[in-house]
Design goal:
Shape: rod-shaped
Oligomer: single chain
Distance between the termini: 115 Å
CATH class of the largest domain: Mainly Beta
Domain Ig-like: 48-151, 155-241
Helix content: 10-25%
Order of helices and strands: HHEEEEEEEEEEEEEEEEEEEEEH
GO biological process, one term: synapse organization
Largest sheet: 6 strands, mixed
Number of helices: 3
CATH topology of the largest domain: Immunoglobulin-like
Radius of gyration: 32 Å
CATH superfamily of the largest domain: Immunoglobulins
Protein name: Limbic system-associated membrane protein
InterPro entries: Ig-like_dom (IPR007110), Ig-like_dom_sf (IPR036179), Ig-like_fold (IPR013783), Ig_sub (IPR003599), Ig_sub2 (IPR003598), Ig_V-set (IPR013106), Zig-8 (IPR037448)
Structural class: alpha+beta
Organism: Folsomia candida
């Protein structure tokens, strides 16, 4: 029992920064107990060691299941645990598992032991915050630890115009065809792209008709284009391009009453305001040019 306490003390001192309040409290106790232990003789036994096959850098997609491997040889009666370092840079760690027991209150985390020696940490439904530094530790004397870094790939969704510029609003005249372009990067392999209007998933077989989607896969992700023919004013509203339940982006479509079925689109970029693009300005500009060019009498 006392030996176990000693090992735990050494173990956690290795994890604590030297300035931590518990450091100065635990250190004298461990030194005193270590002196007592040295008065007895014991037969040295081979120390456990980590397999060189253990991957120390793991990369997974958001929402997937991550397995962090920890193969330990000659474990004998020692115990394996998993901890995660705080992402705040304060040197703190959080105990996740100890042996076959899970100490984290996060039900997505569990220990998954695989014979003969792999103490895998399983993380289901990986979130962005799960990324960071983990450590697999063995309660040997001295304690041993192996670091594992988990990287989470987070998909990104952008709604853009034909030139690839991001947009938040798009304007159309009644009767024109709505065309919305959604660009997804870091696309997970098992998630589908969905389009919603007013938070309702679009039904391409609806009686309204004229709704279609064309999705093109690319090396870096995908491009999904939504088409809505013969737009009406009730087609106005927010349109959302979503990647399952992982992430989404929304654009606001305005269908204006008008006779010309040409599409108008606004983005966050400046609008080109040359005089010839506005009939009134062009007329004033032409009149001014004519006056300036009249010969003096």
């Amino acid at each position: 029992m006392m030996a176990g306490l000693f090992l735990w003390g050494v173990w956690f001192l290795m994890l604590l920064p030297s300035g931590h309040p518990s450091y100065s409290t635990l250190l004298p106790m461990i030194i005193d107990y270590d002196s007592e232990e040295d008065t007895t003789t014991s037969t040295a036994e081979p120390l456990p060691f980590f397999s060189p096959d253990n991957p120390t850098n793991i990369t997974v997609h958001l929402g997937s299941t991550a397995f962090l491997h920890c193969k330990v040889t000659l474990l004998n009666d020692k115990t394996v645990s998993w901890v995660k370092q705080s992402g705040e840079g304060d040197g703190q760690v959080k105990l996740l598992t100890f042996g076959l027991h899970t100490y984290s209150q996060d039900t997505r985390l569990s220990i998954n032991f695989e014979q003969p020696d792999d103490w895998k940490l399983r993380i289901q439904g990986v979130e962005k915050a799960d990324g960071g530094a983990y450590a697999c530790q063995v309660s040997s004397h001295p304690p041993q630890a192996m670091g594992v870094n988990l990287t989470v790939i987070v998909p990104k969704i952008s709604l853009v115009d034909d030139l690839g510029r991001k947009m938040t609003d798009k304007y159309y005249n009644s009767g024109s065809t709505v065309e919305l372009r959604c660009v997804i990067t870091h696309l997970p392999p098992t998630y589908s792209i969905l389009w919603r209007h007013n938070n309702l998933t679009l039904n391409y077989d609806a009686s309204r008709g004229g709704i279609s989607v064309k999705t093109t896969m690319r090396k870096e992700g995908a491009v999904s284009v939504l088409y809505i023919a013969n737009a009406k004013q009730n087609d106005s509203g927010p349109y959302t391009c979503a990647l399952g339940g992982l992430t989404y982006n929304t654009i606001l479509v305005h269908v204006m009453a008008g006779e010309t079925p040409a599409a108008m689109q606004h983005s966050n970029h400046a609008v080109n305001n040359h005089p010839h693009q506005n009939p009134i300005i062009f007329s004033l500009f032409s009149s001014l040019t004519l006056i300036l060019t009249l010969p003096d009498h």
